[in-house]
Amino acid sequence: MDMFGKIAFIGAGNMAEAMIKGLLSSGFADAGNIYVTNKSDRDKLAGLKTRWGVKTSHDKAHVLEDARIVILGVKPQDMECALNEMKGLLTQEQLIISTAAGLSLDWFEKRLDKDYCLVRTMTNLPCQVKAGATAVTMGKNTKDSQRFIVDALFSSLGIVMHVKEDMIDTITGLSGSGPAYVYLMIAAMAEAGEQNGLAKEVAFQLAVQTVFGAAKLVKESGIDSKKLVQLTSSKGGTTLAGLKELENGGFTRIIGSAVKMAAQRSRELSVSY
User: Distances in Å between the alpha carbon of 181 and those of 11, 174, 175, 255?
Assistant: First the structure.
């Protein structure tokens, strides 16, 4: 089933590939209707074509022609140049979705010479396995029918949250950058297990399953995560000893600072470009 028609990806980075994989595995998009272009990396395009069977080209006009959805996955510092190249190729009927950190709808409107149907999003890498978290802000010219398309597209990759645009930077720090914090924690847990005598693969698998299971329990039980901390701990027990060490190291404060700093960087990007 192909419910979206032709989708044009401008930019072929990690997030674009994650979205392509998620869309194809969901069955909602056909590889023959996904077109990808980038600035200059021919090897990257060739890899996407080989792995996923999508259409690739350095001809932006060919990629954009008759596209129903245009996904802008270009780095913030390269976005203005990309938009200049696409002027005259984009149409007001197309749904234009940005996944770039820090660039506001107003930023795009000031650089485009027409009133396009714009959507700003912040998604994350787990959309590759249909477990993503995507925040969405609809532009002033988007239609109700296009909101349905946005919801269908990103819900095929995980959960979708509609938010006010001034919350996007915070969401960038929380869920956009958040997977990297979790990956770092998994690596640290696995390394600690190995240092304390476990085989490397055993430590890794236990760390991954522990994080996966903990998140799954929070999601499916509906129990508050702080309550689950209490349920997992007992006075004088092993978990409490570990938790005390985490707090002695400022674990909660450091996570909060990581989210804050990533959100701050997102805000800085909005004025840097």
Answer: 25, 10, 10, 8
Would 125 be classed as within a structural domain?
yes
Statement to judge: residues 93 and 220 lie in one domain:
no
- Rounded Cα–Cα distance for residues 187 and 31 (Å): 34
The answer to whether 60 and 86 have CB atoms below 8 angstroms apart is yes
pTM of the entire predicted model? 0.90
Helix residue ranges, H only, the chain: 14-26, 42-52, 60-64, 76-86, 105-111, 144-155, 168-171, 178-195, 200-221, 225-232, 238-248, 251-272
Show the beta-strand stretches assigned E in 77-143.
95-98, 117-122, 132-138
pLDDT in tens, 55-69: 999 999 999 999 999
Regarding whether 247 and 115 lie in a shared domain, the answer is no
Please identify every stretch of the chain with a pLDDT value under 50, giving residue numbers as ranges. none
The first and second tokens of residue 256, run together, are: 């909060």
Any idea what the CATH number is for the domain that residue 249 is in? 1.10.3730.10
Question: Which residues are registered as beta bridge partners of 132?
Answer: 158
